[in-house]
Amino acid sequence: MNAFPGRPRVSLIIPAYNEETYLPRLLDTVDAARARYAAGAEGVEVIVADNDSSDRTAEVARRRGCRVARVEKRVIGAARNGGAAVARGEILAFVDADFRIHPDTFGAIERALASPEAVGGATGATMERMSPGIAGIYAVLMILVWTTRMDTGVVFCRKEDFETVGGYDEDMLYAEDVRFLLKLRRLGKRRRQGLVRATAAKAIASARKFDSHGDWHYFTLIARSFWWYFFSPEKIDRFAREYWYHPPR
Fold it and tell me: What's the pLDDT score for residue 197?
């Protein structure tokens, strides 16, 4: 299966900023998924891209047997790229530190990329809790997913294709994952390949943003973002830094 004996088949990259609370529960699910993987636990290396944390994120990661890549540039795309830069696997997979993954994640990724028609994709995700507000925005986002084939959860591709498209955009404070999948999709189109959704192994997404800002806040966030995009773009960057980069944790 692996063309490079002694090397991992999959590199799972976890960008993390001050995630000492959430990281252990993700790693518990990663351990379970590695144990179920047909290539064995040694077929997966886990890399925590520590994005200049001020807490015990790196210590927690090392204690759990992860490789730690220190990335000082406080941009999520830089963290993802920093982890990818030290990865040894033929397949790269990315998941946020507040997610939990399905036990069959690595098998599902392997099966998806075994198809010559797949350039990459994602597992998709469910929410750890539901409410009318969360269900409403989830339904809206699923329409976009079905239309574009671009999903969330654990995002994956072959390492060579990651390098071909130039990885994640380090100038973007948000939506870098969307831009990355768009680049993969364009690459695949030239080869008659496409993005795939490995939804048999959906991840579980944290609801902490909803816990902090309210279950309906995404609807007002989308409306404000459209307004700012056309009439006050500087407010988007200011908001992004407050919302994603400087939360109280």
Answer: 96
